[in-house]
Amino acid sequence: xxxxxxxxxxxxxxxxxxxxxxxxxxxxxxxxxxxxxxxxxxxxxxxxxxxxxxxxxxxxxxxxxxxxxxxxxxxxxxxxxxxxxxxxxxxxxxxxxxxxxxxxxxxxxxxxxxxxxxxxxxxxxxxxxxxxxxxxxxxxxxxxxxxxxxxxxxxxxxxxxxxxxxxxxxxxxxxxxxxxxxxxxxxxxxxxxxxxxxxxxxxxxxxxxxxxxxxxxxxxxxxxxxxxxxxxxxxxxxxxxxxxxxxxxxxxxxxxxxxxxxxxxxxxxxxxxxxxxxxxxxxxxxxxxxxxxxxxxxxx
Length: 300
Known about the structure:
Blueprint (H helix, E strand, L loop, with lengths): L3 E7 L6 H9 L6 E7 L6 H11 L3 E5 L6 H10 L5 E4 L5 E2 L3 H11 L3 E11 L7 E2 L6 E2 L5 E2 L13 H11 L9 E3 H4 L11 H12 L1 E13 L10 H8 L10 H15 L4 H24 L5
Parallel strand pairs: 1-2, 1-4, 2-3, 6-11
Antiparallel strand pairs: 4-10, 5-11, 6-10, 7-8, 8-9
Helix pairs in contact: 5-7, 5-10, 7-9
InterPro entries: Glyco_trans_2-like, Glycosyltransf_2, Nucleotide-diphossugar_trans
Protein name: Glycosyltransferase family 2 protein
Organism: Rhodocista pekingensis
């Protein structure tokens, strides 16, 4: 049984998939399985995966008969994992050769960590680093679209679960940590990905309530921002991408997010006082968002 399981859910990923797999198979730490679940792709994805699996027996390749949606597919690769540690990987992101080695070192040295990621570099279609605004820290992709950068390196590292809750719920904009190395037994205590856009952030909130995060300072993770990412989809397209078999939710994604977070708080094991502090953070954040919407009514 491998120590680490890596789950790679993919749909129509032919442009970047082979390169992403190469950077995973090229890790200096080699005791892992790579579980790839093809979500009924209609491009060359099946051929690319079949060829990769023929050359490396660490790859477990499965294919869905129909597109079950992004969220169920992400959960499916985890359901097949056997390692004590688990990591999700995207078909278009890249990993430096020592990514697993460095994250695993941190996790094994500190039992209180539930997740370890590394510093992140944002790159474009051709793996060229995105231009960064030195004043506000934002990035621009090749088309000039705004892209927020990595989160603060000290996020969710406090021994206080309420502070960790605040770090993720309030301060986290992009959920790069969803691609970090996690403890499988802790991840199984969460509700995993629910079928709405933004559930990855709620899942990170759940993990932060259960333990501390860590960041390896070297930029060993390359996040590829390009025109085909889910960030570019409309709200309706995002809902279909997450789960095409599900009827459009009656609640907006933001309300579904709060439902998941409140459910996580209820199951967290925090004291009544700690839960009250978390609820206060939620209330203050909701009030701030309402004030901002009234001040900027043209913003969505």
